[in-house]
């Protein structure tokens, strides 16, 4: 899709703001645990510039999962001499911020004596992708349609709803996405989103539209002439493939995917938002039932499909 010059300019500014986030350099003497920070790091951690530093003071600012992962990576770096980069979540002044930690190791006569690196505020970068998604018709991360394009398509489809087309709206989300981002850093989280986008495009080649509608949420418009059971069967089969671990260099990333769906009905012609509300309610039921599962809206509630019905539907398709 061609972007207008104004969109490209705004996207460029968003990127520059994210890339130039505040921060600074730091060092830690391993024998004494004494820290040395530049002013930007003090600011990032919400501490008075030039104040006496203790490692425990900085550790208290880390969100628990980020702290655990940082401690593990730090120990590995000291043991192996290999540096690392990690995106960590901080909590300062009652608000949440994101920091990119860069770590290197200095040796003296074969022994690690110092670790050092940089700490950069990347909170703006975390918001950058969502900002870009609102600017263009396609999501820059996955290449799928963005939320605006998806909502326009859904509204247009709703205008022609007469109850006989067999269209369905499917919404899905990555379970515990913040935990994935904390454990595997921002790059790992983005890899999950890219992989899910690729899987959706591959699993639903005949979809009217496949979209990333923001953050860790995706949506599909599907043509499903077979009714409720056929849709549930299709989604459960796709779910097994969607929720497979995401491949990564050292360790695959385990993921869960919660899915909610609703059929387009003639009533949605005058209330297109009701279709989204019904699909969202099915998604909520899927999460409330333990997450990583599929629910289809059926009247007032979203009900699971009995296993016997799924087997019967699969048998009918095979015969």
From TrEMBL:
Gene3D superfamilies: 3.30.70.270, PAS domain. CDD domains: GGDEF. InterPro entries: Biofilm_reg_signaling (IPR052155), GGDEF_dom (IPR000160), Nucleotide_cyclase (IPR029787), PAS (IPR000014), PAS-like_dom_sf (IPR035965), Rev_trsase/Diguanyl_cyclase (IPR043128). This is GGDEF domain-containing protein. It comes from Bosea vaviloviae. NCBIfam families: GGDEF, sensory_box. Residues 165-299 form the GGDEF domain. Coiled coil: none annotated. PANTHER family: BIOFILM ARCHITECTURE MAINTENANCE PROTEIN MBAA, DIGUANYLATE CYCLASE DGCP. It comes from the Bacteria.
